[in-house]
Structures
1.
Amino acid sequence: MRKDYMVAAESAGLDETDFVEAHWTKVWEREGGPQGRLKRIARQDEFRLMMPYLKSLPKGARILDGGCGLGDWVLAINREGFSSVGLDLSRKTIEQLQAHFPETEFLAGDIRATGFPSESFDAYFSWGVFEHFENGPQDCIREALRLLKPGGLLFASVPLDNLRHALRGSREKPSALTSPVRFYQYRFTRAEWSRELGIGGFEVLGVHPIHKRQGVLRFLHHQFGLPYGWFFTRGLAFALAPFVPGNLIGHMVLAVARKPAVAP
Ligand SMILES: C[S@@+](CC[C@H](N)C(=O)[O-])C[C@H]1O[C@@H](n2cnc3c(N)ncnc32)[C@H](O)[C@@H]1O
């Protein structure tokens, strides 16, 4: 596990949880609502990897989206006939979702201590959330294990420690000459992410590097200075991604894991 930091001059007085909430609330305010993103979900790597497993669950199975952000995944998964709940630290984002989608269950809360009864869910997915706390992902993993029914499925993605990071060197913190920085997230290799879930009591069924195009885009930007927004950069990323191994360039790594049917 390696750490990423971000410049955070404005957040000096905030504790870690408040900082994460404030950061994401700002991100989601810029994005607007979930509608624009909904259409794209069926094409996402996460959807392709998760749906074959979800299809083995009964209709109406209860599913948690831990760190649901704009709620687009909750809405999309419910359209497939499931009963999913979106939980997020960002109270403001959740209030807006509750107002716009009163028929859907959106709740403000912390995935490390959700308050749901044990064994409430058949499946639990979480995209890019377990990495955000400096004492590591085990608090999130422990709560996920508690919430799932025996045999329940966990799908969790975290940032992949890929070739771009290796080329950048093992820099832990930006130079002391830059603005104040604070911890932002951990990155994991496939083996590390699998090991964390195993330590937490899960049986790991697969660990998949995902978002290759995003990884190539970031590589082109950081290695060669090509602006993200350029049509040329995006076209090049689109063309190159199929030829580069996911392990080297994937932006995220998604694990599929199962809570043992019988406690170990
Ligand atoms: C990278 S975003 C992912 C959002 C969404 N899952 C998606 O794929 O679009 C991380 C989200 O997790 C939320 N989050 C971070 N830590 C959390 C925690 N401990 N409990 C609940 N939500 C959390 C943030 O507020 C943010 O909305």
2.
Amino acid sequence: MLTEGHVSLVTGAALGIGAGIAELFARNGAAVYLLDIDAAGAEVKAAQIRAAGGEAHAMKCDVSHRGDCAAAVEAAMKRHGRIDSLINNAGIYPRRVFLETSEADWDRMQEVNVKSLMHTCQLVLPHMIARGSGKIVNISSVTLWIGVEKLVHYVTSKGAVLGFTRSLAREMGRHNIHINAVTPGAIKTEGEDIHAVPAEIAAIQAQQCLDRRIMPYDVAAACLFLSSPLSDGMTGQTLNVDGGLYLH
Ligand SMILES: NC(=O)c1ccc[n+]([C@@H]2O[C@H](COP(=O)([O-])OP(=O)(O)OC[C@H]3O[C@@H](n4cnc5c(N)ncnc54)[C@H](O)[C@@H]3O)[C@@H](O)[C@H]2O)c1
């Protein structure tokens, strides 16, 4: 499904949705760079992908640090001379009651979930422009459509991701660069065990059209489509992968 020799950067790829994206892209023939603040975790996942016959490179990268992002882009360009897709997946979602959210909580959320997109896109786009093609997928969240208490700082950041996606798509279309977003619903990941209550997850599943948990693979499949020539007619769009939780 991906173009021959496809090279992809996936942020937050040690666990959860990002790990699912890296695995699926590698299975589809891409050389995958797993960028994660958790260097050891990224290396474990990259080794699993290599053991299954794929090409994977782990890079320690805090996406809120421009220098880390630059080093990852440079490494991929040095080895492959091209970057075909960038999946901006890294994100944090600690819960905070709004009135107890500190300025530091707020700033960290926006730095990791929003400002990081400026870093990665500004670093990758010049290479995509030079080749006259590229695919960027930004991971937002279904919470944007419905609003969630104790996540005001998070949902705000995920709204910004859509504004970023739409505006940058307008600016980059003339270079044949496609920039789309995915809004996952309640996805079964390792992060869920830390942040979510089982009863809440069961209540969400009960509101979905599909009576099953939506998995990292489901989100990865949408990212694969948006990184492949099958979506060449789409840019500035948002795909909702939530099992039919929110219909629009
Ligand atoms: N899990 C869900 O239900 C769900 C729903 C909607 C949207 N999302 C979004 O999907 C994305 C992935 O979520 P997940 O549930 O897989 O998360 P997760 O917590 O399971 O994994 C996130 C990964 O990102 C890495 N990471 C965290 N901060 C980082 C940083 N500063 N730099 C680089 N890497 C960093 C972590 O080490 C981890 O490997 C996030 O953007 C999240 O907001 C998740």
